[in-house]
Amino acid sequence: MDDVEAVVLVGGKGTRLRPLTLSAPKPMLPTAGVPFLAHLLSRIRAAGVRRVVLGTSYLASTFEEHFGDGESLGLELTYVVEEAPLGTGGGIANVAQHLTSENVMVFNGDVLCGTDLGAVVNTHRHTDADVTLHLVRVQDPRAYGCVPTDDDGRVLAFLEKTEDPPTDQINAGCYVFKRSILEEIPRGRVVSVERETFPGLLERGARVSGHVDNAYWRDMGTPGDLVHGSADLVRGVAPSAALPGPVGESIVLEGADVAKDAFVFGGTAVGRDVVVGEGAKVEGSMLFDGAVIAAGAIVESSVVGAGARIEAGAHVRDAVIGDRAVVGAHCEIKGGMRIWPDVQLPPHGIRFSADV
Ligand code: GDD
Ligand code: MG
């Protein structure tokens, strides 16, 4: 696919992942030991694509600071910044002048996916489509773009985040555009590709194809999905060529100090200079650089931010602990709680489902 260029949309603010996204954009959050975007870029490269344009906006400089010109990934990366976010369609229009290939792949920058990208492009070519959408089936389609198709795979409608979805088939956030179609998206204003561009193309009778498969798929936009997606990467359930170590129960980065009798499992990612004390149990979680899990603490399905401390005997489940926050000894934190950066919780508290 040397003749196909790619665009990755990474300009969103990641509000559902706050406070983690106060200091890093969603695609740069450490996921199985590397920024999430590294996994997506490695899949794009493995499919044979070389030129990738990143449409950035929120915390824009962090992308180039990390990935540079892309050479270490075998890619040619170009960064195009939206001073004010232009939405998904506006973001695509904003990079159009940097594209030259006849067909262009466009990716949401927060999707972890195992699909065969070459097969999506083949569907696009065989059906001579103006746009082809990768589609997957999910249990609850309401949080996504619902996309019914006919027996020939022709897209019939595009219903973004509808309460009453007619099918469980959804937009997986990967498209192939004919460049001529992409160039028609209005520039310089906010455009939603989901609410404006796709419905408009369907209305005027353009050929919009659906490519359905049942590959691994997950949108990493919520804390629960981020944690489970990271664990799937660590365990090798979700494919990636960008993992910093072999797949298994955990990935432990350099400088981490895990006590011999601590249990670190279930796809846990342990960042640089993390300390896990004696008898601590960490299951299916993300420990960012410099986090400390003291002796006997339990951490399950949670994100522990950089430099945060979970003190002795505390129990943290389904939670997001902000950078440098402290969860006091024997505290219980459960039920989707988020602790803001630098907050210090005194010992022996029990807290459910309210943010601090
Ligand atoms: N450049 C740029 N500018 N990128 C943006 C902007 C913007 O203004 N707004 C959002 N993005 C990027 C985000 O960074 C993300 O990578 C991608 O566009 C999608 O935005 P999300 O905010 O994650 O959207 P969503 O998850 O609610 O819904 C989208 O993805 C679903 C699949 O994961 C839609 O495309 C749905 O139809 C789809 O089902
Ligand atoms: Mg998303």
Task: Report on the biggest sheet.
Answer: 7 strands, mixed
Which CATH-level-2 architecture of the largest domain?
A: Alpha-Beta Complex
* Tally of structural domains: 2
Q: Helical residue percent?
A: 10-25%
Low-confidence runs of at least 5 consecutive residues? none
What is the number of strand segments?
Answer: 31
CATH class of the largest domain: Alpha Beta
Instruction: Classify the beta-strand content into a percent band.
Output: 25-35%
Per the CATH scheme, the topology name of the largest domain is Spore Coat Polysaccharide Biosynthesis Protein SpsA, Chain A
Mean pLDDT: 96
Query: Could you say which small molecules are bound to this protein?
Result: guanosine-5'-diphosphate-alpha-D-mannose, magnesium ion
State the secondary-structure class.
Answer: alpha/beta
Major beta sheet, strand line-up: 5-4-1-6-11-8-12
What does this protein look like?
The structure is a single chain. The chain has 356 residues and is α/β, with parallel strands linked by helices. The chain has helices spanning 36-46, 61-67, 87-95, 117-126, 179-182, 193-203, 223-235; strands at 4-9, 30-31, 34-35, 51-56, 76-81, 103-108, 111-113, 131-137, 145-146, 159-160, 169-178, 208-212, 217-219, 250-252, 257-258, 263-265, 268-270, 275-276, 281-283, 286-287, 292-293, 298-300, 303-304, 309-310, 315-317, 320-321, 326-327, 332-334, 338-339, 344-345, 350-352. The chain folds into 2 domains: 4-219, Spore Coat Polysaccharide Biosynthesis Protein SpsA, Chain A (Alpha-Beta Complex), CATH 3.90.550.10; 249-351, 3 Solenoid (UDP N-Acetylglucosamine Acyltransferase, domain 1). It has 7 helices and 31 strands. The strands form 7 sheets. It has a 7-stranded mixed sheet, sandwiched between helices. Strands 14-17-20-23-26-29 form a 6-stranded parallel sheet, covered by helices on one side. A 6-stranded parallel sheet has the order 15-18-21-24-27-30, with no helix packed on it. The chain starts with a strand and ends with a strand. The structure holds guanosine-5'-diphosphate-alpha-D-mannose and magnesium ion. Residues 108, 110, 219, 221 line the site of magnesium ion.
